[in-house]
Amino acid sequence: MFTGLLRTRILIQKETTSSNKSGTPTESFEDLKYTYARKIFKGGDTEYADEGELPYTKTEFTVRYDSRINYKCRIYYGSKYYIIHHIDNQNNGQWMRILATVYEYD
Q1: What percent of the chain is predicted at pLDDT more than 70?
Q2: CB distance 15 to 75 below 8 Å
Q3: Which of 96, 85, 88 is nearest to 38 (CA)?
Q4: What is the pTM of this model?
Q5: Domain residue limits at 62
Q6: What is the DSSP string of 48-100?
Q7: Residues 6+ apart with CB under 8 A from 67
């Protein structure tokens, strides 16, 4: 992978769990890192659920390896949040290929 292909700036956020005043755990996301990525559109479709039609888009992001990135993270790009479904380490741990999905809610 050539670093010149990393042209898209993304934000990776990590899920954190804290307790509110009543002791109930609450989940939120905090910024982990801004990084450059290679973004490849992988397809899309529509899922049908109780809420109705849920169109989604599958995207592949390739970033430099970072051990802090895991399945409890999400990607923010283009005013949308991408859910991470698969992480594949490439080239002896130098790169990470992340397969993610964004749902198009109205």
Answers
A1: 96
A2: no
A3: 96
A4: 0.85
A5: 3-103
A6: EETTEEEEEEEEEEEEE--TT--TTEEEEETTEEEEEEEEEEETTTTEEEEEE
A7: none
